[in-house]
Every structure is written in C-alpha cells, then in structure tokens.
Amino acid sequence: MSRIARRGIHYLQRLNASNVSTAMLEKGQNRVIEASLTLIRERAKLKGELVRALGGAIACPSLLGVPLGHNSSFLQGPAFAPPRIREAIWCGSTNSSTEEGKELEDPRVLTDVGDVPVQEIRDCGVDDDRLMNVISESVKLVMEEAPLRPLVLGGDHSISYPVVRAVSEKLGGPVDILHLDAHPDIYHCFEGNKYSHASSFARIMEGGYARRLLQVGIRSITVEGREQGKKFGVEQYEMRTFSRDCEYLENLKLGEGVKGVYVSIDVDCLDPAFAPGVSHIEPGGLSFRDVLNILHNLQGDIVAADVVEFNPQRDTVDGMTAMVAAKLVRELTAKIAK
C-alpha cells in the first residue's frame, strides 16, 4: 500500500483511538466536501461569467484536475499529473496555438477551474463511494456554467466513471464514447475493487451512460476483457488489426441520436516510444499522429473529455510525456471549442 493511501487510513485509526463519534466525523467530512465543491463552484462561476461577457462562444473547454491515483493496480504516480500537464501546456518551448489554429490564450477557447482536492478529502476518511460523488458533482458544477465543458486531467482511469456519469446525468441521456487505450479497462471488479482503473468502463456500461463505446489502441486484453466487451456490445479495435481498421477510425462520425460524444484518452494508448511516462508500458501502440488523425477527423459534438494515466514519476526523458499529454489536451481543446 502506498504512503499516500496509508495517510487516510492512519487518520481514521487515530480518530477511532480518540473515541471521536461517527456523527462528529461525518459532520467534519461534510464540511470538507462542501468547501471543496464551493471552491469548484465559485471558480466555474467566475470563468463562466468571463466567457459569457466576452461573447461569441458556444462551447468552451474548462480544465478540471482530478489528482487521484489510489485506484491504480500498479503505480499511483498519476495522482501527480494535473499540475505537470498544466505546466507543459503553457511551457515556453512551444506556442499557444493548436494545429487547427485556435489560440489557447483566448478565455473563450480554454479556461481552468482548478483541481478537486482529492487527497484532502481522503485524508478526512471519506470513502470512495462519496469521493466519486464529489467528482461527479464537480463536473456538474462546471457544466452548469454554460458554455463551459469539462476537459478533465487525471489521475488514473477510475476517474472516467464519475465524470461520464455526471455528463450523462446532466445532459439527460447517454453519450457515445471514444476510448483510446492499451487496455479495455472493463474488468467486472479488478482485484476486488469496483472502482479500479481497470474497471471504469464496466461501471459506465452497467449504468447505461453510454450508447456506443469504441475502444481503440487495445493490445493488452484478457479473456475477461473480450467477454465483457461482448456482454456490453463494445466495439474493440485492437492494434494487431489497426492497419486494416485505420481508415474507418480516422473517419468516425459519432453522437447522432444521443447527447454527444465523450473522448477518453489514456496516454498509454501511445506506443511507449512516444510516451514513456506511463504506469503500464505496453509496446506496439499508436503513433502520436495516429491519435491526432483520429481526433482531428472525428465528426461529432464533443461534450466532455479526459486525459488520464500520465505518470510523472516515470517521465524520465526530460518531461517528454508531460508535453505529449499537454499536446493531447491542446488538440482536444481545439475540437471542443466553438
């Protein structure tokens, strides 16, 4: 168990040893949760008011960090990713224009509402059921400030479940999901953890939050992964057949008849030659240009997105993977903003 995970457990043990009542503990937890949501709410209001005052924006991506790593089955470094991605987005080694020519310095193109204080909430002994609700509520607070749309920085892939749930509930129906990943993350309950980063899409499909789920870049899949895919009607595109499938995947049209499109990018969808700073290194993946071709040509209204599983603790090549994750965020921004 990691040092980060132990902190919350030890805190609870100390409270129990001090005979703190359950009611008192819950009251304190509720105060911390409400303060956390208030921070997101007020930042979203401020950014939403600015974008509306400037005028002309129909959809404006808004960064929301969810620094959660404890649901990872291997390494917990993705908890440290959001600030590193932000730093790379605004790094002076590149400019602030996207490949499609949109300017990130324009608040109508990109805003930022900060991070959900995940570790502070967990330090108070809040369990994962309530933590997932806090993440969902944070996403909804962003969506309430039209034209803001959540562009979420993970964190491990477990965050996609509460984010997609919030998007679907707020919009009033399912979405189509484009999921780029080396793994399908659709185990029923990986290692006994229903919120495992390897089980996020099982929770999404069980909840009816997606009509179609397209998984692209898959190259590490078990028998259970394939069986779960069949059970939920998932469209799984494995790397071993990518040369055959790429023409279709680079001309996707999604979201018609549902509430829009959700894009989830696990950085390990890329071959580790392009992105070594991930927890699960799986050779034989997509090139960076493969991913951009899929994104740039995607037809559909992207209502929300996430970029997850960047692990700064393994980013040993002079911040290379941070820049890769930042570029993914920049190009997603260009697709969402209008």
Please tell me about this protein's structure.
With 338 residues, this protein is α/β, with parallel strands linked by helices. Helix content is 42%, strand content 15%. It is built from 11 helices and 8 strands. The chain has an 8-stranded parallel β-sheet with strand order 2-1-3-8-7-4-5-6, sandwiched between helices. Helix 2 runs parallel beside helix 5, helix 5 packs across helix 6 and helix 10 packs parallel to helix 11. The longest helix is centred in the N-terminal third of the chain and has 33 residues. The chain is globular, with a radius of gyration of 19 Å. The termini are far apart. The mean pLDDT is 94. InterPro entries: Ureohydrolase, Ureohydrolase_dom_sf, Ureohydrolase_Mn_BS. Its EC number is 3.5.3.1. GO terms for molecular function: arginase activity.
List keywords for this structure.
338 residues; alpha/beta; 8-stranded parallel sheet; 11 helices; 15% strand; Ureohydrolase_Mn_BS; metal-binding; Ureohydrolase_dom_sf; hydrolase
Nearest-angstrom radius of gyration?
19 Å
Characterize the biggest β-sheet.
8 strands, parallel
Element-level helix/strand string: HHEHEHHEHEHEHEHEHEH
Strand order of the largest sheet: 2-1-3-8-7-4-5-6
Percentage of β-strand residues: 15-25%
Multimeric state: single chain
Enzyme class: hydrolase
GO molecular function, one term: arginase activity
Family: Belongs to the arginase family. Agmatinase subfamily.
Keywords: Hydrolase, Metal-binding
